[in-house]
Each structure stands twice: as C-alpha cells, then as structure tokens.
Amino acid sequence: MDEQRFAWNEMTVGVCYYPEHWDESLWANDLDRMLANGITVIRIAEFAWSIFERTEGEFSFDLFDRFLSLCAEKGMKVIFGTPTATPPAWLTQKYPEVLNATQSGVLMRHGLRRHYNYNSPVYRQKTCVIVEELAKHYATHPSIIGWQIDNEFNCEVNDFYSQADHDAFRVFLQKRYGTLDALNAAWGTVFWSQTYTEWDQIHVPRPTPNGSINPHLHLDYIRFVSESAISFCGLQADILRKYLRPGVFITTNGMFGHLDNHRMTDEQLDVYTYDSYPNFAFLLERAGKLDQLRDRWSSKSLTEVRSICPHFGIMEQQGGPGSWYNRMETPTPRPGQLRLWAMQSVAHGADYISFFRWRTCTFGTEIYWHGLLNYDNRDNRRLREVAGFAADLKKLQPLCGAQMDAGFAIVRDYDNVWDAEIDTLHRAIHNQSENAIFEASQLYHTPCDMLYLRANTTLQDLAPYKALFMPHASILTQDRVRLLEEYVQQGGTLVVGCRTGYKDECGRCVMDPMPGLLQPLTATDVADFTFTSPAEPVPCAAWDGETFEMPVYNDVLTPLDGAKVLARFTGSYYAGEAALTEHAYGKGRVLHLGGTFTVENTRRILAHLELLEPMRTLVEAPESIELVMRKKDGRRWLFALNYNSFPVSIQLKKPLVSLLTGKESTGNFELAPYGVDVWKVE
Ligand code: GAL
User: Fold this and answer.
1) What's the pTM?
2) How far is the CA of 311 from the centre of ligand 1 (A)?
3) Which of 38, 57, 212, 227 is deepest in the core (most CB within 10 A)?
C-alpha cells in the first residue's frame, strides 16, 4: 500500500455549505453559529458550475469571492469542490456528446446530476477550462485547506454507454491486448461466432436478446469504466497541482462501484473521504434485505474505506433524516443517533467528520434531505447534538491518526469483486460469505479489516494479520498466489471457501482441478460440487460433535497428502465427505471450507484459530453492541457503541477511565440508548 500523502493532525468537525442556495444576509450568521457549535471547516462549491460560468467562457467569481472573504474574516477553513458533477444547461445543450447514455443509446438529459460521461473530448476540455480558472483564481486563498474533485464518482449511475465510451473502450482494449487475435482469444469469441475482425465492431455493452453478453467483455468493460473515472479525476488533479500551495490537499468523496478507489487514491489524491449515511439501512430493511446489524452495516463500508486510506475523513456524515422528493424515505435520526453514527466513523478511523449539510434546502430534488437545521433556521436538537459531538471529539484528540486493532482481514481484489457482480454463481456465494464473515466479526466482537490484493501489495501488508479470509477468489493469478504463499510460509493462516481458483484473469475457466493455483497450499481436490438443492434440507457439516449449516453452494473436498479433515458433510448424496480441511504449510496453515461462510461456521473457525473475542479479558458485551479498539504508539482505546433504542449493559473487567466523561468504571456499565463511550486501555 502506498503511504497516504495527507492526514489530519487534529480531529476536526466540518459541515457542507452552499452559499449559492441562501440569501447573502444569512451567511455571516451561519458562519458564526457553525463556529460557536464547534464546526471549523466547510465544504463548498461542488455543484456551482453555472455560478462560475453562466454562459460559455464568461467567468464570474464574485459570489464566492465575497463568501470566501467572509470565511477569512471569521476564521472558517474551506474545502473547495470542482463543479464537474453538474455540467450547466448551456454546455449539455450545445455539446450533447458530453452526456451519458442508456444502454440503448438514449442520452441522459439535464435535470439531475452526473449526466456526463468521462470520455467525451469536449467534456474533458470544458472540465480543464473550468478547473484551471478556479485553481488560478482560488489556489492561494488563505481559507482554502483542501480541494474536492467532482462529487461522488460513479454515484447515481456507474455504467457508461455514450458514443465517446464506445470509442474510448476500443482504445483501452488496443492498449490491453495489442491485437484483435489476442482479444478474441481472451474473450473466447469463437463461442457463438462472436469473433471480431475489425476494432470498430467492438462496443461497450449494448442491448442483446435477453441482456446477457460475453462475460469476458463485461469484465473488461467494468475495468474500462474504472479506468475512465480515474483518468478523469487525474485530469483535474494534474491541473490543481500546478497551482496549490504546499500542504493544501486534494481529495474526492464517496465510494461507489465500477471504480478502483485504491488506485485512484494512490495515483491522484492526497487523502480519501467517504460519505456515511447509516440511515440507508432502514430502506434496505423495509425491502426485506437486511438483518439485525441494520445501521451497523455502515461499519462494513467504513472497514473498506480504511483499506483505501487508513486515516480518512468523512466528507458527508448523516446530519438529519434523508430523502429526495421522490425516493428514499427514511426516519428522523433518534436523539443520540447522529452522535452515534459520527462516533462509528471515528471508531473506524476517521479523523475528519463533516456533516451533510448545514441547513435543509428549501427547493430542488433534496427538499427532504435534511441538514442539521430545518427550513426555519432555528437552533434544534440536531445542532445541539453535533455541538456535543464536537466537544466530545476534542477529548478524543489523542486518538488522531490511531490505527484500528484487527486480528484478521477479509481479502478482496477488484477482479473478483467485479466478477462477482456479473457472474450470478460467484455473486451468490460472495455476498453470502462476505456478509456472514463481517456479521460474525461484529456479533462476536472480533474486529476485522479488509485487505485488497493489488499490484503493489506486499508481504508487509499481509503480515500483521493472524488470519486472512479469502472466501471465494474464483479468479486467481500467479502473483496473488505467490504473495499468499509467502504469507502462509511465514506463519499466517489462510482460509478459503468453495469455488476458489477456477478462473483466470480474463474470467475464463481453467482446466485444472479446483482450487487451481492454490491446490499446493490447501492440499485438497474438489471432486464434485453443487448449488444446494431447494428440494433437500440445507446440508450440514459436523465438527467435533457440533453441526453447522453449509448453505448456497458446496464443494465436496478430497483431502490430499497432509490435509486433515476438520468437518464432514452430514447431508445430501455427499454425506460423510470432507467439508472443511486444514493443511499445515510452512510455518502457517490453510483451511479450505467446501461451502459458503455463515455466521455460525465463521464463529467456529475463528474459535478454532483462537481469534474469537480478543477483548474478552477487558470487556464482555452482548451481540448488539459494537466493540472497536484503536491503537497508537503503544496506547489503546476501546469504543463501545450501542445501536439500540434501549439501554444495554456491558461488563468492564477492569477499572477503565472514560475519555468522554473522565469517570472511572468497572463491572456493570450501562450504555444509554444510542450511547457511546471510549476508554483508555493502557
Ligand atoms: C450524497 C451527495 C450529496 C447529497 C446527499 C444526499 O450522495 O454527495 O450531494 O446529494 O447524497 O442525497
């Protein structure tokens, strides 16, 4: 992993503000009240293109000049956004080729945002012009401490089908494959007579009789979308870097699909920021798609964010009930919840927390996406809660830059994340297992990290973890296997699940027995495999007299020389066959589960590896409480977060002093509804 180029040296609270939405007479009072409530940074301007360039080539900076002078006067620091997420009407009207399109080629029109495409030469040129004008004008402004590029790459839509994308896809493929022969081989185009004889025959996905397309093309298309977004981000970063004062950082916000956020951050950004809206959990819950973790699922996203940038910021932290005028109805955060969710971000490594937004907009799509203040502009409980949080954060100052203390990591790589998106078999097992492993880690207080295997990943990145869970790496490459082998050789534990290692980097199936390149490490062979049958009871596996379910998919394992069988299937036609094996390799070991991970089998495996509940000598808590440990320079801090609407008791096993209240507690400790506490451990 590359070193991050900027990190906050103080825990900081911010808010998103839109001077262009309000009468100027409100500005001074707004800034005064922010500062009085502990908010010292604002993010501005990311949607204001039509203010800066009302018609083509006619620039005006007056409004933001006046506002920034006021910021300088009041001592408010500013993160300035480039406005490219919202091309103005004059631009899209005159140059419709800048627009994104549906798969059928229908242009996405003005009226929302992110309606542009990354590859249009005109859009790239217009972007360079506006960014250069803004950078020239504002780069030396004393209030500006950082720049945000665009807003939420790949939000709203992460598929691109404009003419510019068809054209750029071919260039991308020419670079990747060199010749059409190589491309035809990589995509297996001999199947169904898909062979290409001219580059112009190749397109980003277009409508087909039932929507399916060549899977290898599909995988490359997602790589292409990611590449396009990174290059568009880089276009802007390069311009900004020509003008910025030293110490002023470049970031972007949000984490969306079809984008290698790790590479974008390493190559283009100084620091990464995320937008955290835990209330979305309630939408999923209403749709029957979520279980008991609810808003705790945001901790999984934060875990992923930490893998991109260990000391990240939150550019948009939920500040109120959020819905658009036509979608996403969610409840008002209960008293305590805003603070809880902000602390969830802090517990997972954020050193900057900026709420979205200061005041709810009185017009436009987001009239119900509430900020801290309501339309009436009166002080309210949400603002008081944020002021309280800002005061709390001051007390957590020693934690700034602290690391998360995690004993194991969930391993990912972008090839497999994207393959799991397009391949329904892979998706079914990937989602089941990743969620179950994360849920087990949450419920049984065994914090985990996420680790992406990338071209620049080294043994040093893997070595801190006692175990790595790589549930279903269908795609394996020599490089990744070599790295995993080194990790196991020097004492690490690797845990893999079913359908490991049957594809190459193009997504083509290999003719080796599963788990392919990993077979020397697992010492297993997959003799047979199946989706579990709805006509039979869910197959189980027995391990030391206890049984657990093996749902969704089963690989029937044959242990080879040296592999020990830990568990055997108890149901279906493969009852009695190996379901979980362990193979000592070098100084470490490799476990192979012939199935998907569940909360229960993960708990058993973690217990077997002696990783379960690492904080148990310090604290005991019910499953509904999240426990997190952060560490820095030999010091450690324990977070306990109560996501429940009722008080919950935990047991502190030794006297601990709270950083928030200064009180020492031991034994029974009651966390208030939506309550949080943080203790110094040593
Ligand atoms: C974020 C976005 C904000 C605002 C918010 C509420 O995704 O960055 O600009 O739209 O959602 O919808």
Assistant:
1) 0.97
2) 22
3) 227
